Amino acid sequence: MLNARLLALLFFATPAAGDTALFAVAANYATAAEAQAVAYKAASGHDIQLTTGSTGKLYAQIGAGAPYDAMLSADAATPARLEAEGQAVAGSRFTYALGALVLWSPDPALIGPDPAVSLTDPRLRHLAIANPELAPYGIAAQQALQSLGLWGVLTAQMVLGENIGQTYAMVATGGAEAGFVALSALAGDMQGSRWQVPQELFEPIRQDAVLLLHGADNAAAKGFLDWLASPAAEPINATFGYATATP
What we know:
Blueprint: H1 4-12, E1 20-26, H2 30-44, E2 47-53, H3 55-63, E3 70-72, H4 77-84, E4 94-99, E5 101-105, H5 115-119, E6 127-130, H6 136-147, E7 158-161, H7 164-172, E8 178-182, E9 193-196, E10 205-211, H8 219-228, H9 234-239
Parallel strand pairs: 1-2, 1-3, 6-7, 6-8
Antiparallel strand pairs: 3-10, 4-10, 5-8, 5-9
């Protein structure tokens, strides 16, 4: 069933007079956010503009005064920090998606069921991961490799992407034979070989949203956050490889 907030959005929106909001969106969620924004506009008439990048860089831009109305982060810590620093509306944080991590290669024979064998294969000259200092998916990849006892072993082969989107591009274009990417990047794509990293090998990638002070009175921003917290967003998230957080 649709919740009360979503029902209000659907029945009382005025598409002809929609507002516009600017969202800072973590790179991994870019394609899913576009799909969510299209569905939200059809229901509400509001336009959502997206600027994507690494969570670390988006946070820096917000601190420098970028006019974002809200943020869809790739972690939970950054929205909490923005709230604590007084740059976000208190009490507006929530988890809009749970990310999944995959070891992927375009080579259909490179990644097998045993990740230790695949990661120490001589054919793997370069392993792409997102920079752990900038991107939560990079932290998850580091934790997974540490859990496997391979972090120190593979350091010389690692190439770092600024964000998880760039990391995927490194592998897709041949800059690295394999990499740890977001499952969302492979949604609907069965090419190559992959191993989905078990959740017990890394801390859950809780992706939180927060309303920024710039958007405190923006109806489009508040409505889109309501949309992402509602059952209407769940099928789109699932299509792009994201789970829904349990309360």
